[in-house]
Design goal:
The chain has twelve helices and 22 strands. By secondary structure, the protein is α/β, with parallel strands linked by helices. The relative contact order is 0.10. The structure holds MU-OXO-diiron.
Length: about 400
């Protein structure tokens, strides 16, 4: 288990977790993920963040290849979520640091997770605080609610390096450590997946933080998950991509998600799709049975139009559609045009339920919900097609086309 030198005397000492699949409901890449931790050797040796509890052996092993863990003077804990801080107690026990730095709100999380920290040499820092570690300086910048209240980043101006905790990260596992060593399309997909399933609700905070990042001289961003952004072009690409995702400007692309009992609502989904496609809008149909809710969310993040369908079930909607709507609502996507549809046998509430959920999200609803009893015939399919067309026309209008 070798450390990787990123710059002179700055090393990656994290671990790759090939078994990781579920991150509080977000289904991560089938390859797993990476927990990154970094070491700087200077007059004061500093370890930035730790790793998930099961990976502490890998962290200490890599660290030992650079120096004895007891030679770590400072710990910087940029984020207290347990995929990074879960092994903190073992690391403190082993390294016995002279100081542990975290944000003011990080101290509260630390006290909650590690009551023993009352005996640790913890120092809370705030935005703009800095420490000298010899030839280098560490400047702290709080990034509250990106994505936890405690979150902060560490900037090392002498090395033009930003250690960014979860921000700019991706769930990617493998032997490569740098973005430029990985397939570009998969990299972008994993960034979007991470953003839309974790960071999206905090897009206003992202837009406030990006100018601060851009005001710094940075040629490397080292996040706590996945690949490291090396070189100014790579840094610019991820910052631009974050801005695009945070702005949530409408995109000419549509998603239809649905569940079905006896294929009637499914037929309506395909009819709605034809209405969108004849307007030239690329559209993807995703069954909630066949696709994980976070995979659907990743797609939704790239779509300006969203349609959803469910048959009526016990005067409401099918549970997988309800779960999908709950998940989407929590992530607060903005600025969508939407439509609802569903088949029914007798009571017929489902399409209205979905329309109500979209209303609560503040999405534009250009047409009434479309219902179809029993099996959709020509009229029912035409109504679903026209719904797709109405939503598509509203999207094109927003796009100025
Ligand atoms: Fe990767 Fe918010 O922890």
């Amino acid at each position: 288990m070798q450390p990787i030198e990123l710059k002179k005397d700055i090393y990656w000492v994290g671990c790759v977790d090939y078994d990781h699949r579920d991150f509080h409901g977000y289904s991560t890449s089938p390859e797993g993920t990476t927990y990154n931790a970094y070491v700087i050797k200077d007059e004061k040796n500093v370890l930035f963040d730790t790793v998930s509890p099961g990976c502490v052996g890998a962290l200490l092993c890599r660290l030992s290849k650079i120096m004895e863990p007891e030679r770590i003077d400072y710990l910087v804990i940029n984020h207290l979520e347990l995929d990074h801080a879960g092994s903190l107690a073992e690391v403190v026990e082993r390294c016995k640091p002279e100081k542990i730095f975290c944000s003011t709100l990080g101290l509260k999380s630390m006290q909650g997770y590690f009551p023993q920290c009352k005996d640790w040499p913890v120092q809370a820092v705030k935005s703009g605080d800095s420490i000298s570690i010899g030839k280098r300086t560490i400047v702290f910048q709080e990034t509250r609610m990106l994505h936890w209240p405690d979150s902060m980043v560490s900037y090392i101006p002498e090395d033009k390096l930003l250690i960014s905790q979860d921000a700019f990260g991706q769930n990617i596992a493998g032997s490569c450590r740098f973005v430029d060593e990985h397939d570009p399309a998969d990299f972008e997909f994993r960034v979007r997946e991470y953003y839309n399933n974790i960071v999206l609700p905090y897009s206003p905070q992202v837009l406030a933080a990006l100018p601060i990042v851009e005001s710094l001289d940075i040629d490397m961003i080292a996040p706590d998950h996945g690949l490291i952004h090396r070189g100014k072009d790579s840094v610019k690409r991820i910052v631009d991509l974050y801005r695009e995702m945070a702005e949530q400007k409408p995109r000419k692309r549509a998603l239809i998600f649905y569940d079905t009992m006896w294929h009637s609502t499914e037929k309506m989904a395909y009819a709605a799709c034809s209405g969108l496609e004849e307007l030239g809008i690329p559209t993807r149909i995703m069954s909630v049975k066949q696709n994980h809710h976070s995979t659907i969310m990743t797609e939704l993040g790239q779509c300006g139009a969203v349609l959803a369908g469910s048959p009526t079930h016990n005067n409401g909607i099918l549970p997988l559609v309800a779960a999908q709507l709950t998940y989407i609502k929590g992530l607060r996507p903005k600025n969508r045009v939407a439509g609802a549809f569903g088949s029914y046998g007798w009571s017929g509430e489902s399409a209205k339920c979905i329309q109500g959920a979209f209303e609560e999200m503040g999405w534009e609803l250009p047409a009434a919900p479309v219902r179809c009893s029993w099996r959709p015939g020509h009229d029912g399919l035409k109504a679903a097609h026209d719904l797709g067309r109405a939503v598509g026309e509203a999207l094109l209008k927003k796009l100025g086309e």
